[in-house]
Amino acid sequence: MSDIDAAAGRYTTIAAEHRSELDIKRSRFITVLRRTETEEEARSLVADLRREFHDARHHCSAFVLGPGREIQRSNDDGEPSGTAGIPMLEALTKRETFSGATDLSDITAVTVRYFGGILLGAGGLVRAYSESVSSALSGAPLLRRRRMRLYGIPAGHSAAGRLENELRTAGVSVLGTDYSAAGASIRVALPDMPDALDAFHARLASLTAGASDPVPLGTEWIDRD
């Protein structure tokens, strides 16, 4: 497994597609990183790059998917077995992110190789593909994802604006307010952790004098800065 804290419900992913290139003994290694949440999206990146770099000899890939990194795949695409895909996958799974955690997921790496005429050998290929992904990760923007518990807070039309402002001031993540003829519902997102939920309930009771009970709306993974 990884250093993902399942109880805290958080992991790291890439914030935007990123590319980098290395020249190693005349071979060009072009690595593309993209955020992907399904195997279909991961394979779509490989297909995109096969079209873009149609004259390249190899399009090797690795991807890690899911909050708990449940899905991990790699492909050598014609390179000697174990010299490309696995080193790329290890570069993803062993990458330290925030606070030294190894929790990178929902990411696909594809390394396109243009052969330069000099054989690298098995060890050289392992180092080249690992370095290519590691180098790309060094320049890639990352973000944290957190599992949040969503609630709707009922409020009257006249009180909704004030309550929303007070919740924001208290540091609660407010997603928005829905209005209807019957009243308003302020949607909030809280870290899916017992202490955060207890603190929220206490704060809400204080703000509304116990007159408003939050309505559970389920959980959702949300990008955080």
Task: Please provide a written account of the structure.
With 225 residues, this protein is of the alpha+beta class. Helices cover 31% and strands 37% of the residues. The chain is built from 5 helices and 10 strands, in the order E-E-E-H-E-E-H-E-H-E-H-E-E-H-E. The protein has helices at residues 39-52, 85-93, 121-139, 157-169, 194-208; strands at residues 10-14, 18-24, 27-35, 58-65, 71-75, 107-114, 142-155, 173-180, 183-191, 215-224. The strands form 2 sheets. Strands 1, 7, 8, 9 and 10 form a 5-stranded antiparallel β-sheet that branches. Helix 2 (85-93) packs parallel to helix 3. It is elongated and about 75 Å long. The protein starts with 9 loop residues before the first strand and ends with a strand. 34% of the residues are buried.
Set out the fold topology.
Blueprint: E1 10-14, E2 18-24, E3 27-35, H1 39-52, E4 58-65, E5 71-75, H2 85-93, E6 107-114, H3 121-139, E7 142-155, H4 157-169, E8 173-180, E9 183-191, H5 194-208, E10 215-224
What labels would you give this structure?
225 residues; 5-stranded antiparallel sheet; elongated
| Gross morphology | elongated
SSE class: alpha+beta
Largest β-sheet summary:
5 strands, antiparallel
Termini gap:
25 Å
Helix fraction bin = 25-40%
Please trace the helix and strand order, writing H or E for each element.
EEEHEEHEHEHEEHE
Kindly provide the radius of gyration, computed on alpha-carbon positions and rounded to a whole number of angstroms: 23 Å
Give the helix tally.
5
Residue-averaged pLDDT, rounded? Answer: 92
Beta-strand content bin:
35-45%
Count of strand segments:
10
Q: Would you identify the regions where 5 or more consecutive residues have pLDDT less than 50?
A: none
